[in-house]
Specification:
This protein is an alpha+beta fold. It has one domain. It contains five helices and 13 strands. The strands form three sheets. Strands 7, 8, 9, 10, 11 and 12 form a six-stranded antiparallel sheet that branches. The longest helix has 18 residues. The protein is globular.
Length: 244
């Protein structure tokens, strides 16, 4: 079972180790800055900056608007702008949208430095336009992402059986938004007590949904649009607030 309020998985150390090694391998190979850990943030945070082109300012971000400015600066290079911005105890999250107001990808903003990078998990591994499946390269001062690097480790082979990675049938075809919500509800019912899924928001190759308790946001999860696999966003920590 997951602990949705604590931002961790219970009994999923293998996932932490696998993803941390994956992040470290890429950052080491690209010469990125992997020294961003701060005051008890999720272990994953220290490997993020340096991947997928980040925006280092050295200026702390303390508000949703500050996080939005950083996300907009990052997104401008791709013709994208920030949509929904959320604050969690481990940092900030933002959607990036294109000129049609369609969701393009998801990013994280480090509150201690203002660094911005593509979010771990689905945005990096499932996004068919801005992530690994597209072989997308995004250059920045901190490094870049290579073509398909680490895809085997993160693509569902070594993580099957982990509570945050639940394949519901590889190659089942296109999953609709409604189906994604039903899959999310079924997964939450089996793995997280008392949470329900919100509305499925489409991104290239997957959907992201809020997880809610009594109509209040608690966290997030994503559903793959081709396989129905579920990826719980366990790296955020506790939800604080959000702004559209």
């Amino acid at each position: 079972m997951l602990d949705p309020d604590g931002g961790r998985t219970i009994g999923s150390m293998g996932t932490w180790v696998a993803i941390a090694l994956f992040m470290l391998a890429i950052v080491s190979g690209c010469g990125g800055d992997d020294d961003q850990a701060a005051n008890g943030r999720a272990a994953m945070m220290q490997f993020g900056p340096g991947m997928m082109g980040y925006t280092p300012t050295g200026t702390p971000v303390r508000t949703l608007e500050g996080a939005r400015r950083q996300a907009n600066q990052f997104g401008a290079r791709l013709g994208l702008r920030a949509g929904e911005v959320m604050e969690f105890t481990n940092g900030y999250y933002a959607e990036l949208r294109d000129d049609r107001d369609a969701n393009a990808t998801e990013v994280l903003v480090d509150p201690s430095t203002g660094a911005v990078w593509i979010e771990y998990g689905p945005a990096m591994m499932w996004n068919t336009r801005y992530g690994m499946p597209a072989g997308y390269r995004m250059q920045g001062e901190g490094g870049m992402m290579g073509d398909g690097m680490g895809w085997g480790m993160m693509g569902g082979r070594s993580l099957r059986g982990d509570p945050t990675w639940t394949p519901y049938g590889k190659g089942v075809g296109k999953v609709s938004a409604g189906e994604a919500e039903r899959i999310a509800a079924r997964w939450l019912g089996r793995n997280v007590n008392g949470l329900e899924p919100g509305e499925a928001e489409a991104f290239p190759g997957y959907y992201t949904l809020h997880t809610e308790r009594g109509g209040e946001v608690v966290g997030m999860l994503s559903v793959n649009a081709s396989t129905g696999a579920v990826w719980y966003h366990w790296w955020h920590g506790r939800f604080v607030r959000m702004a559209e």
